[in-house]
Structure formats: structure tokens, C-alpha cells
Design brief:
Elements: H1 3-11, H2 18-30, H3 35-48, H4 52-64, E1 78-83, H5 91-101, E2 105-110, H6 120-125, H7 136-146, E3 148-152, H8 159-170, H9 177-190, E4 195-202, H10 211-227, E5 231-238, E6 246-247, H11 249-263, H12 266-283, H13 289-301, H14 304-315, H15 326-329, E7 335-340, E8 345-350, H16 352-362, E9 378-381, E10 388-389, E11 394-400, H17 403-416, E12 417-420, E13 430-434
Parallel strand pairs: 1-2, 1-4, 2-3, 4-5
Antiparallel strand pairs: 5-13, 6-9, 7-11, 8-10, 8-12, 9-11
Residues 84-85, 179-180, 183-184, 187 line the site of uracil (URA).
Length: 435
């Protein structure tokens, strides 16, 4: 098979065969196909797209590039959750323990963020001692014993995605539906879960800027899941303003602990309940939405979900003291500055994108793979869209270990807030559910 022939086909908008896709992925992972040819393939795919069958074959080849975690020895329904990435999205830290508390087996492989802040792994690593590098056996055993484990993707799982993602990141080919769908689903399928709930974000802080784009991605994800024999449900949620009150790694862990203790912000909890109940309906863990909601509420109000989070921290070597001492045991940056309201009015917009970029400048995110992040840096959002504010009120707090950065980021965070003198209804958080 000739790589340049395959590239020409995709460049001209023709569909590739199963064998051609397999040949490309195998060749790229083994090193026989160089980065420059893969880059051309990614750009051609970005521009010309892929049909459903090609996207499925691409996903399957990516899964087959590495090992698949075998969870069949564990009784019960094994579930996983994934988000396409947003600003302030600490949902996994809250929803994972809630699902484990209602009896589902949460086997979650997570990534490090390449977005505005760290990913779930970076957030968990802000807990002193927390180990995300479990072996496959440790992972499977922990899911079996306590019903939840969260670990980093090992080198042997989906190596094709790791290599392709690194290239997409530097070739402006991230926001392509077949490339995102195959990247997400290949990792989830390799993770071994039976059922997966996916949170596809739409808005200024997301890859998919519009609900229509998000819906197209959701449909691609569900179609791949069906063909691969997985139960998949997708929730499309709003990412125009940051989720919850915090953006930054240790801050988000602190907010997740507060949420598990019953003090979560309305939007964060609405998203957790929606994702959780849809997954419970899909897997038969509940027959009706009311039943799912009542089980999830009980998990939270009885303290069982918080206990699951404590157990998760303990089993993965972290300091469980953080649960009761977030202020002293989680890292906080040294310098803090407030952004204050100048003229009274109602908040119409908080740009997730600008807050995300600001948080990354402050040290909460990384610009390149492998870069260190500052777990104690970030932004606290004091007011949300729809709130009435007066001069002197705090809109946000910026936290950094570099005082100079606070001055650099100030204008960005100020601009992120748009305040007008007419009242404004916040937009819906949940746009759609695709089953
Ligand atoms: N999340 C992923 O895992 N992959 C993508 O390509 C985009 C978001």
C-alpha cells in the first residue's frame, strides 16, 4: 500500500477503506510512517471529514494499537465518564464518587490537560501523595474492592491516540469531529468499561463552539459506541461560562469536596445529576429519572459519596486529611488579587475562554505537553451570569505564585465579565441528551 495514494484519496474527499486506515495507524505507531505524512493525513481529514464507517474503523485501529483493560473479573456494571474539556470542569471528581456510592463500578482513565487548566490527573495530584500511576492490576483490583479508581493512561493503552494527539496539537487539527470522536472513543473502549457517559461541551470555552457542532460530535460518539458494543449516552452542556466557582487544580479539588459535602454550586450539581441519572438509566441501575435522582441525592446527603472520595484518596496514597482541611493541606498560591465591579448591573457574560486563558497564564495550565503546572494557581469566580452586582463587589479572585502575572492577567479577567444595566436570565446548562 502507498501512503501518498491514501493521502491523495483523502485530499480529494474520497472514503478510505478499513485496510487503508489500519495501514496508516499501524505504520504511524511503529514509526514507519513519519510525522509529515501523518500531519498531511490529519489536515486532509480535518478539511474533508470522514464518513461514519471510516470514523469507526479509525477508532477500532486506534484501540488495536495497544492493550485493552479487561474488567470482566469484576461483578457489576463497569462505567466510565469523559468530558471533551471545559473551563472549571471538576465534574469527574464529584460524579465519580456519587456513582460509586450508588453501586456502579467506576473505572476511569484520565488525561492531563492540554486545555486551559490541568486535567483530572493534575487536579488529583494537587492532593499531597495522590498516585495516579497505578498498574493495570492495581486499577482492576481497586475498582473491584472499593468501586472506583482513577488513573493515568499507561503507555500500552491506545498509543496511537497519544502520538496522533501530540501531532494534532501542533498542526491545528484538534477541532475535527472524526478526529475528536475517534480519540475519545478509542481511549474509552480501551479502558474496558461497559457503559460510558460523555459530556460534550458547547460554547466559548470548548472545542465545539456551537450546539450544532456539539450535536454532530455527540452523534458520531454514539454511533461508534453502538458499533463497538458499548452503551453510550452523551449530554451536551453549556461551556460559555466557567463551570462552578473555581478554575485551577487545587481550587477545583476543594470545590469538589465542598460539593460532595452538600455545598456544590447549582450548575456543577445540575451537570453531575444529569450525567449520573442518564448513565443510571442507560445501564438499568435506575428505571426512571426520579429513581436515579433519588439514589444520587441519597448518595450525597448520606455522606456515602464523600466517603467514597475519601476511600479513593486513601487507596491511591493521598492525604485524606484534605477532606476536612482543604485550606491548610491543599496548595494555595501566595499572591491574590480581586477583580471588583466598577459599575452596577447584571452579569450577561463571563467568557469561559478568557477566564481559561487567564488561569493558564497564572500557572494553572500548560502550553506544551510535559510542562509543569502550579497546582495552587487559578481563578475563583465570585459571581455568575445573571447575578446583580454593585461597585466594590468582588467578581473574581486571581491567585498566582508570581505577583507580576496578576497584573498581566487582570485585563483579561476584567474583559471576561460583561455587565449591563438590564436583568439577564442565565442560559440553560443542558442543551440536549443523545442516547
Ligand atoms: N478529548 C480527547 O480525548 N480527544 C480529543 O481529541 C479532544 C478532546
Amino acid at each position: 500500500m502507498q501512503v501518498d495514494y491514501i493521502l491523495a484519496k483523502k485530499r480529494d474527499g474520497l472514503a478510505l477503506s478499513k485496510d487503508e486506515i489500519e495501514f496508516l495507524i499501524k505504520g504511524f505507531v511503529s514509526g514507519e510512517i513519519p510525522d509529515y505524512q501523518m500531519s498531511a493525513f490529519l489536515m486532509a481529514t480535518y478539511i474533508k471529514g470522514m464518513n461514519e464507517t471510516e470514523t469507526f474503523e479509525l477508532t477500532k485501529s486506534m484501540v488495536e494499537s495497544g492493550k485493552v483493560i479487561d474488567l470482566s473479573s469484576i461483578d457489576g456494571v463497569k462505567v466510565d465518564k469523559h468530558s471533551t474539556g471545559g473551563v472549571g470542569d471538576k465534574t469527574s471528581l464529584v460524579l465519580g464518587p456519587m456513582l460509586a456510592a450508588v453501586g456502579l463500578k467506576v473505572a476511569k482513565m484520565s488525561g492531563r490537560g492540554l486545555g486551559y487548566t490541568g486535567g483530572t490527573l493534575d487536579k488529583l495530584e494537587s492532593i499531597p501523595g495522590f498516585n495516579v500511576n497505578l498498574t493495570r492490576d492495581q486499577f482492576v483490583n481497586q475498582v473491584d474492592e472499593i468501586g472506583i479508581a482513577i488513573m493515568g493512561q499507561t503507555k500500552e493503552i491506545d498509543p496511537a491516540d497519544r502520538k496522533i494527539y501530540a501531532l494534532r496539537d501542533v498542526t491545528a487539527t484538534i477541532s475535527s469531529i472524526p478526529l475528536i470522536a475517534s480519540s475519545v472513543m478509542s481511549k474509552k473502549v480501551a479502558g474496558g468499561a461497559d457503559a460510558i457517559v460523555l459530556d460534550v461541551k458547547a460554547g466559548s470555552g470548548a472545542f465545539m463552539k456551537t450546539v450544532d457542532e456539539a450535536r454532530a460530535l455527540a452523534e458520531a460518539l454514539v454511533s461508534i459506541g453502538k458499533r463497538l458494543g458499548k452503551q453510550v449516552v452523551v449530554v451536551i452542556s453549556n461551556m460559555d461560562q466557567p463551570l462552578g466557582r473555581t478554575v485551577g487544580n487545587a481550587f477545583e479539588v476543594e470545590e469538589a469536596i465542598d460539593a460532595l459535602a452538600g455545598y456544590g454550586s447549582a450548575d456543577l450539581m445540575e451537570l453531575c445529576y444529569t450525567l449520573g441519572s442518564e448513565l443510571m438509566l442507560k445501564t438499568g441501575a435506575a428505571q426512571t429519572t426520579e429513581e436515579a435522582m433519588s439514589k444520587l441525592t441519597d448518595a450525597l446527603e448520606s455522606g456515602k459519596a464523600l466517603d467514597k472520595f475519601r476511600q479513593l484518596i486513601e487507596w491511591q496514597g493521598g492525604d485524606t486529611g484534605v477532606i476536612d482541611n482543604t485550606r491548610t493541606l491543599l496548595p494555595h498560591a501566595r499572591f491574590v488579587e480581586d477583580i471588583e465591579v466598577v459599575a452596577e448591573g447584571y452579569i450577561h457574560r463571563i467568557s469561559a475562554e478568557e477566564i481559561g486563558v487567564g488561569a493558564r497564564y497564572l500557572g494553572a495550565g500548560r502550553k506544551r505537553i510535559g510542562e509543569a503546572i502550579d497546582p495552587g494557581a487559578g481563578i475563583f469566580i465570585a459571581k455568575k451570569v445573571g447575578d446583580y452586582v454593585r461597585p466594590g463587589d468582588t467578581l473574581a479572585e486571581m491567585w498566582s505564585n508570581d505577583a507580576h502575572l496578576l497584573a498581566v492577567v487582570r485585563a483579561l479577567v476584567e474583559e471576561a465579565f460583561q455587565i449591563y444595566d438590564i436583568p439577564h436570565e442565565p442560559p440553560p446548562l443542558i442543551y440536549d441528551v443523545i442516547k
